[in-house]
Amino acid sequence: MLRLSGQTAHPAARYSHTSLKFRKGEIIYAQGDPATDWYQVESGTVRTCFLYRDGHRQLTGFYYSGDVFGIDAETYRSSAEAVTAVTLTRCSKSMGSAIASNQIPEASSLLQSALNHAQSCISLLGRRTANERVAAFLLATAWRIGGSDSLNLPMTRADIADHLGLTIHTVSRTLSELARREIIGLNGPQSITIRNPHLLRLLADGEGRDTSYEQIDRIGALAMAPATALGR
After folding, report:
1. pLDDT single digits (tens) 174-226
2. How far apart are the C-alpha atoms of 54 and 127, rounded to whole Å?
3. What's CA 153's distance to the chain center, in Å?
């Protein structure tokens, strides 16, 4: 992930960097506010939420250490909230006019990082079944918060449901079924161990699109079978 570098930034831009701390649940900025700044997460987790007029919310992204958010045009299209206690670097958009020519590649990387995050969210929501969405979410989260198979999720299941376009019941049922199949382990409401990352990846890619879970069993048998049993 892109890191801000005070040592390489243009001198006039250094004074536009401000370190901020937010407590869990605090609003960083509200949907519709003037988009005068963008932010980088130094520690903790941030969520962005699009609020509909009927009160429904869509979580548009989670941001972890090193991630950049808030790169909107004139107004923020979603609100940003602290999922945990967070430390952020706030950067004024006015600093763009002060960036030296040798900093243009860094600015381009910043925009590319934000674009990649948006594309990842689109890809996640493009998956059709609850199995695929939950599996893809677990894999993406594991990779983004350190690559470990043991996850201490900072967000609630309600957050996950609102992010994936599912109900809390569906998320809980899917996690329970994945645990019953020993694809994951549930160590608590927000503590998960990925026991079979290969099978979880197959599910995320749509190989387990079967509501009866019979195909999941078949995939699991193939994944666990010796090579000789597959005729190799």
Report:
1. 999 999 999 999 998 889 999 999 999 999 887 645 444 555 555 555 444 43
2. 25
3. 11
Strand pairing of 86-92 and 46-51?
A: unpaired
Alpha carbon dihedral 24, 1, 127, 225, in 10-degree steps, equals: -110
Residues 6+ apart with CB under 8 A from 169: none
Contact between 46 and 65 under an 8 Å Cβ cutoff? The reply is: no
DSSP state of 40: E
Q: Are 134 and 178 in contact (CB under 8 A)?
A: yes
Residue 70: give the domain boundaries: 11-124
Q: pLDDT tens for residues 121-146?
A: 555 565 578 899 999 999 989 988 87
Q: Are residues 67 and 132 in the same domain?
A: no
Give the end of a domain, one of 74, 98, 124: 124
CATH number reported for the structural domain that contains residue 164 in this entry = 1.10.10.10
CATH assignment at residue 66: 2.60.120.10
pLDDT tens string 96-121: 444 444 444 455 555 555 555 555 65
Longest dimension (CA), the chain: 66
Question: What's phi and psi for 61, nearest 5 deg?
Answer: 175, 155
Burial 52-76 (b: 16+ CB within 10 A, else e): eeeeebebbbbbbbebbbbbbeeeb
d(CA 41, CA 24): 14
Beta-carbon count within 10 A of 115 CB: 11
